[in-house]
């Protein structure tokens, strides 16, 4: 099967309302498609199931595409199916949305200064309307534009149609070796200019790193990290630290995932209190934004077992008819500036705007 066949299969599955996912891992030049044979909606019952999971930011309803009821195809991406992105155009600023988000950030800063939180992650949504949204072209633009991201397109009856290009790995487990990342801090990438990180951004990233390290200590006696470094994802750069741990046993996967998700990079610290603050104050339902997705117990691209590869669902959108619902957020600390944080979300929105 060619990549063109896989893209055509997306259209037929959408028409028949059958679950599917098509994805390309960071740095690879091949797409993998998992196409369910019938329209039944499945959920992840146990963390030993083999297939593809799509989990929300909050709640227990983890959508699942089981391998045993699906056809799996992998194909090299052909050059003729790579679609260039549109020219960057800064969006018009919605003053009401700007004011609302800045009020949310101000409220978050006030809460942090009381000592209840170390960090909060606030987000908002934008709707981009087009006369027609061709999901195949959108996904091909994602493939072309963000080669270092996990690029996906997924549909299930419960979730609807989502696509995105996320730079953040939740975790990867091969046998007992676990890899994850601490990713935080955000700047607009400007070619030729040296990236300089402020204390606020360094502090934000260190909070994430410390949380991951403490979360893994219960499950591993051997944890190593790289020094923080600048990582580019499209038109955005972040501070990134790579973390590796050797798990004590193979039965800890569910506990580790539940411990790491949601990370401080998408929620805040302390986690339970930060999630409650978000649910009470953001004013909209994140759904699957800042949840996680990926392969469970099998590498469907390479065909190997004992492999779990999950990503945090960032830089994503939900497509409803000819509307693209964009989800964008940023980490808040006591030193945050509300207006600056709003324009950080504007910069992040360009990741998805330029492929619609």
TrEMBL record:
EC number(s) stated in the UniProt entry for this protein: 5.4.4.2
Keywords on record: Isomerase
Enzyme kind, highest EC tier: isomerase
Any one GO molecular function term: isochorismate synthase activity
Catalytically driven reaction(s): chorismate = isochorismate
InterPro entries documented for this protein: ADC_synthase, Chorismate_C, IsoChor_synthase
Domain Chorismate-utilising enzyme C-terminal: 98-348
Pfam hit, one: Chorismate_bind
NCBIfam families in the record: isochor_syn
Similarity comment text for this entry: Belongs to the isochorismate synthase family.
Protein's name according to its UniProt entry: isochorismate synthase
Source species: Flavobacterium arcticum
């Amino acid at each position: 099967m060619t990549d063109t066949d896989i893209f055509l299969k997306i259209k037929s599955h959408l028409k028949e309302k059958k679950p599917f996912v098509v994805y390309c891992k960071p740095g690879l030049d091949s797409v993998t498609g998992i196409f369910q044979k019938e329209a039944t909606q499945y959920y992840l019952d146990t963390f030993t199931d083999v297939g593809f999971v799509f989990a929300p930011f909050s709640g227990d309803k983890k959508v699942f595409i089981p391998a045993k009821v699906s056809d799996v195809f992998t194909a090299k991406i052909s050059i003729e199916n790579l679609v260039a992105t549109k020219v960057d155009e800064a969006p018009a600023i919605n003053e009401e949305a700007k004011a609302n988000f800045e009020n949310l950030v101000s409220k978050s800063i006030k809460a942090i200064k009381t000592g209840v939180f170390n960090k909060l992650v606030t987000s908002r949504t934008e709707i981009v309307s087009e006369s027609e949204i061709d999901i195949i072209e959108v996904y091909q633009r994602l493939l072309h534009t963000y080669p270092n991201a996990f690029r996906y397109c997924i549909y299930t009856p419960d979730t609807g149609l989502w696509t995105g290009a996320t730079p953040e790995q939740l975790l990867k487990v091969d046998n007992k070796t676990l890899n994850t990342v601490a990713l935080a801090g955000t700047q607009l990438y400007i070619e030729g200019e040296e990236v300089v990180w402020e204390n606020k951004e360094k502090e934000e990233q260190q909070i994430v790193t410390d949380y991951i390290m403490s979360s893994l200590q219960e499950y591993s006696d051997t944890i190593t990290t790289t020094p923080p470094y600048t990582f580019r994802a499209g038109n955005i750069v972040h501070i990134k630290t790579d973390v590796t741990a050797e798990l004590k046993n193979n039965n800890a996967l569910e506990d580790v995932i539940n411990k790491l998700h949601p990370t401080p990079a998408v929620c805040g610290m302390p986690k339970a209190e930060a999630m409650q603050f978000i649910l009470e104050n953001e004013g909209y339902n994140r759904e699957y934004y800042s949840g996680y997705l990926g392969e469970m117990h099998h590498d469907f691209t390479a065909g190997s077992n004992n492999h779990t590869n999950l990503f945090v669902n960032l830089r994503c959108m939900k497509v409803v008819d000819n509307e693209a619902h964009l989800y964008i957020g940023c980490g808040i600390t006591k030193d945050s500036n509300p207006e600056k944080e709003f324009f950080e979300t504007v910069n992040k929105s360009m990741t998805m705007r330029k492929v619609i």
